[in-house]
Amino acid sequence: MATKLMSSSSIACLFLVGALLQVVSAVDYDVGGDFGWNLPPNPTFFSDWTRNKTFFVGDKLVFRSKSSESHDVAEPERQTDLDGCVKPGITLSTSAVLSISLDSPRRRYFICTIGNHCNAGMKFSVDVFVNPNSALLPPPPPSSASSLRFGAVLAAAMAGLFFLLTI
Ligand SMILES: [Cu+2]
């Protein structure tokens, strides 16, 4: 009986720890999903890909291109440059795989500068947010009390489970 109780609460505890790790761990996003950073089937392909995703500081964008296609990654500074496919002076990489860390909370713009690729749809922007649930980052401004509340609830849940494990 006691063994059964312990094992089920152990499992619950593992689930909780798993959920917690998922909340605070960074995500590596393959840009364009399985399609990769290649000439898209339509001009809105990459902006469609960013939709319904929330990017947090610490996440990474991984640009993977087919070896049969030639692409690069450049980072314009403004929306108008993204819209007009204005090529910045610096190209970040021309290699087939490029990983970019989203290191601060701001909007970032990415294009391919090869040929007409940007106009064909190889461009998108992402809004990068501070993850309110991450304990690894500096505390958010005082106004956002929700993350503190989340932490308190989590701590209480952990304490409860720990209690169950020890009886
Ligand atoms: Cu390209």
From TrEMBL:
Superkingdom of origin organism: Eukaryota
Record keywords: Disulfide bond, Glycoprotein, Membrane, Signal, Transmembrane, Transmembrane helix
GO CC list: plasma membrane
PROSITE patterns the UniProt entry points to: PHYTOCYANIN
Signal peptide feature range: 1-26
InterPro entries associated with the record: Cupredoxin, Phytocyanin-like, Phytocyanin_dom
Gene Ontology terms for molecular function: electron transfer activity
SUPFAM superfamilies: Cupredoxins
Transmembrane segments: 147-165
Phytocyanin domain location: 27-130
Protein name: Umecyanin-like
